Amino acid sequence: MIFSFIIVNYNTKKITADCIASLYKNSKLQAIDYEIIVVDNNSSDGSKDYLLSRFPDIIYIYNEENLGFGKANNIGSRISKGKFIVLINSDTLVDQTDFSELHRLVEERNDIGFLGCKILNSDNSIQSVGFKFPSLMNEVKLRLLFWNFNTIKKHRFSNYKDKGLVEVDWISGCFMIIDREY
Predict the structure, then answer these.
(1) DSSP classification of residue 131
(2) Can you give the pLDDT at residue 160?
(3) Beta bridge pairs of residue 38
(4) pTM of the predicted structure, to 2 decimals
(5) Measured between alpha carbons, how far is residue 176 from residues 86, 107, 154, 172 in Å?
(6) Residue among 62, 97, 95, 123 nearest 177 (CA)
(7) Among candidates 76, 119, 40, which has minimal Cα distance to 17?
(8) Is the pLDDT of residue 123 over 80?
(9) Collapsing DSSP states into helix, strand and coil, what is residue 88?
(10) Rg of the Cα trace of the chain?
């Protein structure tokens, strides 16, 4: 087993279904052995029946209470079998993500503990490419230059070219690949 995709659900059955469907539609995953684990934090919207009727081969864990995002991911991670754990938000779509390339990167590089990727908004503008730790300069950029506002980010990233691996201090929690052994 290469990847264990862990998706936390809390009353988001439709967007969680879209996320799962995007995994199944991804042509780069067809040659990779993976599992999908949904950890439900006590949803009351019929998520369990809805998701299992559409995707009967997923692993579905139902918590009797809302344990929060972090604890739910830990629960899914404990039962996962993949060499790499992929934490993915329920509102994230990955049908165009090159998982074969991401797999190649984490296999070849033994110094990668966490791997993120460029995160796009629904209009294909860049939402995130990773972040630096807080510093005086970063705070000036964020607070005085409105560095993180969408209109400013669109301008900042307008000429962005895919740069391959870029070391950052932290990555978005909406999508990250974790090497189980790191």
Answers:
(1) B
(2) 61
(3) 7, 60
(4) 0.80
(5) 6, 15, 23, 7
(6) 97
(7) 40
(8) no
(9) strand
(10) 17
